């Protein structure tokens, strides 16, 4: 089984960390291919960033289809380009917010999302709503932490995230934590050890969900909304995205 983990930003140090965390939970015999697109923003912290990340993400999905990849994880908590990726892919495609929220709803009664910047809170609530997770989500909280600070040696990012998780438990009436950024993937075990509650990392959750879907021989439905996009000319800078019949 080959699973492609796509970090939609172009910061390779984060991609390497994401790949290592996915490999740590993958079963023996599962090959994890962790990549960043060749183009796109270095971090994703706004709707604008998400939009710019999607073309590179879709290039990686298309390349995965040519390479015989069995399933995909989109390793950004905004789940950018998820439905477009499912249109291109035959195997399952899972977003890390989608995976983490669903797993959290199975092991606790209420969860809080702890994310990076306050400006992304609205998107996290939007995803909770469309995934049917709003009734389980007690709160979405931000550390006011730029994503790339997670990659800086000597940064106090870990302490700030732990502090916000602690406040979530004390103030939100929650019993588990969802980490709201793929760049936090290596902090899960530490935060669990400090706070003593389940902490869900979407990269690990997404990896195991895709493994399960592939093992069950469940593929993306190609009837209706997620059928392959209709071929049509694409002009200008995006001409290479033109699909053949």
Walk me through the topology:
Elements: E1 2-6, H1 12-25, E2 31-35, H2 47-67, E3 71-74, H3 82-88, E4 93-95, H4 96-107, E5 111-115, H5 121-130, E6 137-142, H6 157-171, E7 176-179, H7 188-195, E8 199-201, H8 202-215
Parallel strand pairs: 1-2, 1-3, 3-4, 5-6, 5-7, 7-8
Enzyme class: isomerase
Catalytic activity: D-5-isobutylhydantoin = L-5-isobutylhydantoin; a D-5-monosubstituted hydantoin = a L-5-monosubstituted hydantoin; D-5-benzylhydantoin = L-5-benzylhydantoin
InterPro entries: Asp/Glu/hydantoin_racemase (IPR015942), Hydantoin_racemase-like (IPR052186), Iso_Racemase_Enz_sf (IPR053714)
How is this structure best summarized?
It holds the Pfam family Asp_Glu_race. The protein has 245 residues and is an alpha/beta fold.
Structure description:
- With 245 residues, the protein is of the alpha/beta class.
- It has two domains: 2-96 and 204-241, Rossmann fold, CATH 3.40.50; 97-201, Rossmann fold, CATH 3.40.50.12500.
- Helices cover 41% and strands 14% of the residues.
- It is built from eight helices and eight strands, in the order E-H-E-H-E-H-E-H-E-H-E-H-E-H-E-H.
- It has helices at 12-25, 47-67, 82-88, 96-107, 121-130, 157-171, 188-195, 202-215; strands at 2-6, 31-35, 71-74, 93-95, 111-115, 137-142, 176-179, 199-201.
- It has a four-stranded parallel sheet with strand order 2-1-3-4, with helices on both faces. It has a four-stranded parallel sheet with strand order 6-5-7-8, sandwiched between helices.
- Strand 3 (71-74), helix 3 (82-88) and strand 4 form a beta-alpha-beta unit.
- Helix 4 packs across helix 8.
- The chain is globular and about 55 Å long.
- The mean pLDDT is 94.
- Belongs to the HyuE racemase family.
- Keywords: Isomerase.
- It is an enzyme of class 5 (isomerase).
């Amino acid at each position: 089984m080959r699973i492609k983990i796509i970090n939609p930003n172009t910061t390779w140090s984060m991609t390497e960390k994401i790949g290592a965390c996915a490999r740590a939970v993958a079963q023996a015999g599962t090959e994890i291919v962790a990549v960043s697109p060749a183009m796109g923003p270095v971090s994703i912290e706004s709707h604008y960033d998400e939009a710019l990340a999607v073309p590179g993400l879709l290039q990686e999905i298309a390349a995965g289809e040519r390479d015989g990849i069995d399933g995909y994880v989109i390793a950004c908590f905004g789940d950018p380009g998820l439905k477009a990726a499912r249109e291109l892919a035959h195997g399952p495609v899972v977003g890390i917010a989608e995976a983490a929220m669903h797993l959290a709803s199975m092991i606790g009664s209420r969860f809080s999302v702890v994310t990076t910047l306050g400006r992304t809170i609205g998107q996290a609530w939007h995803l909770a709503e469309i995934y049917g997770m709003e009734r389980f989500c007690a709160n979405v909280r931000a550390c006011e932490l730029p994503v790339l600070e997670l990659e800086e040696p000597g940064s106090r990012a870990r302490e700030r995230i732990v502090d916000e998780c602690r406040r979530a438990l004390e103030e939100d009436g929650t019993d588990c934590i969802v980490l709201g950024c793929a760049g936090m993937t290596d902090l899960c075990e530490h935060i669990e050890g400090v706070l003593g509650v389940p902490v869900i990392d979407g990269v690990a959750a997404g990896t195991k969900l895709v493994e399960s879907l592939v093992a069950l021989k469940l593929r993306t439905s190609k009837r209706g909304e997620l059928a392959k996009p209709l071929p049509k000319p694409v002009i200008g800078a995006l001409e290479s995205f033109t699909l053949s019949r």
